[in-house]
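Progress against Task 2.4 (sequence-to-structure conversion) is shown through the following example record, which the project officer requested during the mid-term review.
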Amino acid sequence: MQSNLPNLKRTLSSTLIHFYPLAGNLSWLNEPNQPMICYTEGDSVSFTTSESDADFNHLSSSHLRNAIDSRPLVPHLPASGSIVPMLAIQVTIFPNTGICIGVTRHHSVCDGRGFAYFMKTWASCSSLESSESLPLLDRIVIKDHDDYTNIFLDELNGFMSSQSMSGNRRLRVMDLELKPNMVRATFELNEETCRRFKERFYPSSRLVAICAYTWVCLIKAEAKTGGSKSNSTRFVVNVDCRARLIPETYFGNCVRSCVVNAERTNLIKVGVVMATQLIRFAIQKAEEEGILRGLEDSLSIFLKMKFSNSKALVAAGSPQFGFYKIDLGFGRPKKVEMASNDRTRAMFLKESSNLDGGVEFDLVLNKQKMDAFVSLFVDGLHALKIEPLCPRTLHPLL
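Structure tokens generated for the chain above:
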């Protein structure tokens, strides 16, 4: 495995030629008064290697484990206050067992689809295959006819100044503090289970149905464990806007968040049918009214939601990203996870690891809430006659 590291670095370097913003730094200077990703000749990406004596099979399994176990495998983006790098890579070697490639990116440079595009291009370079297309980096292709840029800049400027002790803007990376007793689990739904979800909650898609079911189970688990004092709840799903606005090869952020609001008591009483309708209608409304309609309030809503007592479940990732097909020269990954969802309250969606047409998602909760969630999740599948669930996913909790 160590013999492959020079090739991994070489192919990363070759890939960054086409994705050079990832080698740059985010800064927000007084002139011009807007954040910019600056790249100059000679800029580089941090690439570190380490060795671990941890249990590789445990870390790459789907069963319940401590969320903090993933932390040493992911690099940190150092921030100087006014400058933040865009990307860092850490390769952790488990002698005679396996290897972990940890990647940390700043979300300002690209969204999940853009990141998957970068990783696939890196994999193509590693296997000496030619990439089908080069990324489009020009931000000008997104036309801002309604001056959203200045609206968002004013919101961000006020927010970042309020979060700084000195009152000056400070570009920060995500707080790494992890609440105690947090555990991570992966839930695998095979193709047949996904098909039954779609049939049971038609006309909603299988992903909308799975997200709605997870949302309701989580609300019930919180009610059982006393996890929330607010009756309000939210579900957030991102809609990719590339096909509606720009070429699909655009590398950057091009998603619109759809925020679904509901009352916990109503969802507990009515159940998944109501949740699927709310999510489906929110997505349809965004698509029918225009993907940019009402965008002027989106950042303000997000910042208020971040600090409110009303917790939101966020759907991150997508089975369409194809992370399990990425081969960087070591074979297909045994496990793909988003380490940051231990503090973002996101369900990380991806295709099934065995590429059988199913879906899997990761969730991080405290141990008490996770136990309640698993019980509700499994019992609900039986009650709805939506089976089978991949048995190895939940076995350690039963």
